[in-house]
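Hey, can you fold this one?
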Amino acid sequence: MASVLTLIADPAKRNLSAAQAAAVAEALKAETPVWLAEDLACDIFFADGDLAAAETRARAALDGAPLDLAAQPAEGRRKRLLVADMESTIIQQEMLDELAATLGLRAEMAEITARTMAGELDFEASLQARVARLEGLPLARLEETAEDMTFMPGARTLIATLRAQGCVTALVSGGFTSFAELVAEACGFDHVQANRLLDDGKALTGRVAEPILGREAKLAALRDFAAEIGCELKRTAAVGDGANDLAMLEAAGLGVAFRAKPRVRAAARFRIDHGDLTALLYLQGIAEEDFREA
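Sure. Predicted structure:
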């Protein structure tokens, strides 16, 4: 069975050269690179073997160039389901931090959020403690804050293209329905799950509805959606950046740590440090000419 190593650059730089691709192909004793996007992404097919060793040889051939790469079996690389984290993955913000900013608590909240996403604090307990600080925040502030959300580069193209390819897409967030439902609609996700902030009709109560959607709930969502469409886990993809994403990243056939925290980068089988979210399309062998826009 053949394997494939994909090289991916930052779309803002398009700095993957033919010479670099050729050097990697030579290191793998592989076929001529197949370009998925000029100066941006290519596939290098090679004889099946030790995938980790192939990645090590490829990195040595690139000599520190700021490029992403991943080796995987060529068969089955096109996935049938994607489960995506939302904050710092599909959107660029952490919305609890943004809400806290309206109360002058951004620095304090951001520090706790960063420690939680790094796996230093229990997610559920941290979420409850942070939400408690928002007690009394008018609901209008949520609507105002939602207007400032920005998508991660490539997010809407990723979802539109996968759906055009017949892939089921789900947004599963430890964040809140107030924001996740808007993001899911704008991107075109098939499904959305998130936590729900409780309110008294005018302001937040400082509590979040139980059960809290955390690490194990994300893994359960991946399994449930896969079972619903009759899909083996090896034919699924997942993407996220925080410690609460690790379980689903490890279970998915293509679990991608996207510009992730150090612990997550170290543990995940696949990672994207330089490219944008369209890297997940290249990893599945989808060429730039086949991309769709939301």
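Residues 215-228 form the longest helix (14 residues). Let me know if you want another pass with a different chain boundary.
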